[in-house]
């Protein structure tokens, strides 16, 4: 199929474009490059455009005879969403609305949506989160993604088939070393710890040591970006017109902040200075996925480990000029 990949120059989008190409599809990347990287577009045509530009969206759909959509284009910094919520609603909600309008006008009835565990808000607890956990987002980012999900689900009335994939914590890099995580600024834990190991930053902050977890630090379910990409291709093959489904994507087990830092020290063979800091508002103690429904419906099982994530991300960091390879 000719698949429009909105936000396909970004971290997860670019890995999914590669997976689509490997499966025999043509990923048409649509990105405004505000946060994406042009060098990450390697597996199909590139079209520059904004997700809120309805005229441009429909023109690209016509030009490439688009048959399905993978929708990644979004603002995704939880903290930034609290200080500038309207920007998040403009891109994540209005942009999704424009995309759906364009799809309806062109008779495109398949979409796989990049969603998030942030829609669950503070629901994290000792047991893993299933898809029936109430959506109670506490940030404008989480609320904007939840609203986008509802728009996609409600569009079944005109025949749209949608799958929302609720990621937990994406990590790692392409096993071939071609693409990887390169945000500016970087906000994700694993690359930040790797930057500290590489000497690109002086330390890593641990936000809270008094959570009700096994070592007092927050626990998160990390999933390799290559596993995420595989899940998207599997979801695309199972989208049914007029039906909506949502699936959690995670491993079913969590790693604490301290465990991630220790794993980086062990794998990279480098010291990492860790500094305790105050809790951040809104950080749930634990967020771990129950991936059973994705396994049953999509045949998806995450196969790569935390060590795999760290090793692949470290290789990408070393090999792509973010640090002096002579020091690695």
Automatic annotation (TrEMBL):
GO terms for biological process: galactose catabolic process via UDP-galactose, Leloir pathway. Keywords: Carbohydrate metabolism, Isomerase, NAD. CDD domains: UDP_G4E_1_SDR_e (cd05247). InterPro entries: Epimerase_deHydtase (IPR001509), NAD(P)-bd_dom_sf (IPR036291), UDP_G4E (IPR005886). Its EC number is 5.1.3.2. It catalyses: UDP-alpha-D-glucose = UDP-alpha-D-galactose. The keyword Isomerase applies. Signal peptide: none annotated. Belongs to the NAD(P)-dependent epimerase/dehydratase family. Pathway: Carbohydrate metabolism; galactose metabolism. It comes from the Bacteria. Transmembrane segments: none annotated. Pfam families: Epimerase. The gene is galE. Residues 3-250 form the NAD-dependent epimerase/dehydratase domain. Homodimer. PANTHER family: UDP-ARABINOSE 4-EPIMERASE 1 (PTHR43725:SF53), UDP-GLUCOSE 4-EPIMERASE (PTHR43725). GO terms for molecular function: UDP-glucose 4-epimerase activity. Its cofactor is NAD(+). It comes from Acuticoccus sediminis. Gene3D superfamilies: NAD(P)-binding Rossmann-like Domain (3.40.50.720), UDP-galactose 4-epimerase, domain 1 (3.90.25.10). This is UDP-glucose 4-epimerase.
């Amino acid at each position: 199929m000719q698949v429009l990949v909105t936000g396909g120059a970004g971290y997860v989008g670019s890995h999914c474009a590669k997976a689509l190409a490997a499966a025999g599809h043509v990923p048409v990347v649509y990105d405004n490059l505000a946060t994406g990287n042009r060098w990450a577009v390697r597996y199909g045509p590139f079209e520059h455009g904004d997700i809120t530009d309805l005229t441009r969206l429909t023109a690209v759909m016509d030009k490439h005879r688009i048959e399905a959509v993978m929708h990644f284009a979004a603002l995704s910094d939880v903290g930034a969403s609290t200080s500038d919520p309207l920007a998040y609603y403009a891109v994540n909600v209005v942009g999704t609305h424009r995309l759906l309008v364009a799809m309806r006008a062109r008779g495109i009835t398949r979409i796989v949506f990049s969603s998030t565990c942030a829609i669950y808000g503070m629901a994290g607890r000792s047991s893993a989160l299933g898809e029936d956990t109430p959506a109670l987002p506490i940030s404008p980012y989480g609320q904007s993604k939840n609203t986008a999900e509802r728009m996609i689900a409600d569009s079944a009335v005109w025949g749209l088939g949608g799958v929302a994939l609720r990621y937990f914590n994406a990590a790692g890099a392409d096993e071939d070393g071609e693409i990887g995580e390169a945000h500016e600024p970087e906000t994700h834990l694993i690359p930040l710890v790797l930057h500290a190991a590489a000497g690109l930053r002086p330390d890593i902050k641990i936000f809270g040591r008094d959570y009700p977890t096994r070592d007092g630090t927050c626990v998160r379910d990390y999933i390799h970006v290559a596993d995420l990409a595989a899940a998207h291709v599997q979801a695309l093959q199972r989208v049914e017109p007029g039906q909506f489904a949502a699936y959690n994507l995670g491993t079913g087990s969590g790693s604490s902040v301290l465990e991630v830092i220790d794993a980086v020290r062990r794998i990279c063979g480098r010291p990492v200075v860790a500094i305790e800091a105050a809790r951040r508002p809104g950080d749930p103690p634990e967020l771990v996925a129950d991936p059973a429904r994705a396994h049953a419906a999509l045949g998806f099982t995450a196969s790569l480990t935390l060590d795999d994530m760290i090793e692949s991300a470290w290789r990408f960091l070393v090999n792509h000029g973010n640090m002096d390879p002579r020091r690695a």
